[in-house]
Design goal:
Elements (H helix, E strand, L loop, with lengths): L1 H17 L13 H4 L7 E10 L2 H20 L2 E13 L6 E13 L8 E10 L2 E11 H46 L1
Antiparallel strand pairs: 1-5, 2-3, 4-5
């Protein structure tokens, strides 16, 4: 459902941008930051929208979609599949061509987002449904610090592993030496 909403919004944005010759470049009255998120070398941004009959659910969905989009900017593992089936039934003019196309994609993201928050948010009501537009930001410095912390933790873990391995090697050498000495004393 999120992918469909996202694809519809991308289509809407493309249509809006394609109508550049019209006097109104924003016929849907979308927030300006939604169509053109800010550019700042100190932040990552994601502009998202979600809807729900419940106001808070719309806000939460939009915020979570924004955080997921930022995490995908950092690292994402994608997989996809497409299938197509065609079959023609009948003869000549009475034949009927059946065509089915299926496309599925999955993305997996696992990132810790330090300092992410809603920078801008607009709420609208459309036919009894709330729509939340959210611009999520995350300071790149916080992301860099989180990455550095993970590297330090991994280095500490690796150092502990290596020290344990070194002690095991040392114990084995001592045991081998003791066995050699016993053989010499026989």
């Amino acid at each position: 459902m999120k992918a469909v909403n996202l694809m519809l919004m991308v289509l809407v944005v493309c249509l809006v941008m394609a109508c550049g010759s019209s006097k109104d470049n924003n016929p849907l009255n979308l927030p300006s930051w939604y169509l053109s998120p800010p550019q700042d070398s100190n932040y990552m941004f994601a502009a998202t929208t979600s809807s729900s009959r419940d106001l808070q659910v719309a806000i939460n969905k939009s915020l979570m979609d924004g955080r997921a989009a930022i995490a995908q900017q950092m690292e994402v593992r994608m997989s996809g599949m497409q299938r197509r089936f065609q079959e023609e039934v009948g003869l000549g003019e009475d034949s009927e061509l059946l065509d089915q196309f299926t496309s599925a994609y999955k993305s997996v993201v696992e990132e810790t987002l330090v300092g992410s928050r809603a920078r801008e948010q607009e709420i609208r009501q459309e036919n009894g449904v709330y729509r939340a537009y959210t611009l999520v930001e995350m300071p790149i410095g916080a992301a860099s610090e989180a990455l550095a912390q993970r590297i330090r933790e991994n280095n500490n873990m690796y150092t502990r592993f290596r020290s344990t391995e070194a002690f095991r090697d040392l114990e084995k050498e001592i045991e081998d030496y003791r066995e050699w000495r016993e053989r010499q004393n026989r």
